[in-house]
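Convert to structure. Protein one:
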Amino acid sequence: MSKIYPSPTAALVDVLFDGMTIMSGGFGLSGNPESLIPEIRSAGVKDLTVISNNCGADGFGLWMLLDNRQIRKMISSYVGDNKLFEQLYLSGELELELNPQGTLAERIRAGGAGIPAFYTRTGVGTIVAEGKPAEVFDGELYIRESWLRADLSIVKAWRADSAGNLMFRKTARNFNPNMATAGKVTIAEVEEIVADGTFDPDHIHTPGIFVDRVVRSTINEKRIEKLTTRPRSG
């Protein structure tokens, strides 16, 4: 049965509710589900917990949900130049669970793999370790981190077929494949929908068993967060 939906709005029907947890792929402005996020804003769901590396940039991506005061808590690893993110956190309007980036990635991977907890040296002796169980392995102290899972994962891929098999392109791959495995429902927005049988099985990054719905993306801006150039010689 085809998993293709006609529009981002249709793909989100019956999956959104107040108080839910959403994982959103992307790193900086690369690989963000640009078409699904505005539809979540339009739906007006609130008290969201959002798991994402960062929270968009001014006027773009998850910033839209922050600006609309739909996010109650962020679980992320990077604030960046998002002034609204900073402002809401410092004013107490936004809860923030800040993670080392590798720990965040592994917590998401663990959620998709069914591993409820794991130990890491990252964060030992810092505020990251406060309140977390610790144990000594081979003479070194490790802290215990728990998995992350979500009611909904929204990811951005390059190509998909009707079965939901996904292929990502270069750095847009980032957190997306792991997040696709860790949601109760996973919706992938893609730039291209290809005919079944097009993919070489060895080139599939996320098997369709992890993907519930696929929609052709309507926004593909691919912004550059910080553009640095130099004069061309000659």
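Protein two, convert as well:
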Amino acid sequence: MIALLDEAASRAFGAKLARVLAVGDVVTLSGDLGAGKTSIARGALAALGLQGEAPSPSFAIVQSYAPPELRLPVLHIDLYRIEHEDELLELGLDDARRDSALLVEWPERVGTRWWHDALALTLAPAADGGRALTAQVPAAWKARWPLI
């Protein structure tokens, strides 16, 4: 468990994540509304080179970023409004990881088959008012975890 005391700590964690992120990686971010999923994604995007604030992809569903703006292509995905996993096929997300890293909020909306090998991060409220982050670390991430 990793303690994230506030939004700044969530963004700092995202920056650490960005240091080891590569094309083909999928990081899923789960937790209630306001848990800090977007803060982690914004921290990662800023560390990868994004100037300015990353918009939440809640309405667009997919926000894409590419070099030279970032050091690698990234899709920031918010599945909150997805009602059925077939919608992912329409968005082309089945092939997206071939040339991008994916940061996926609300992955539970589509089940587990899509990104079975993802670094799965879950945020929950902590007693101190911050967030408790837990991770399910797949084999592809073992050499990169824990983040330093």
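Residues 28 and 104 are 5 Å apart (CA to CA). The mean pLDDT is 92.
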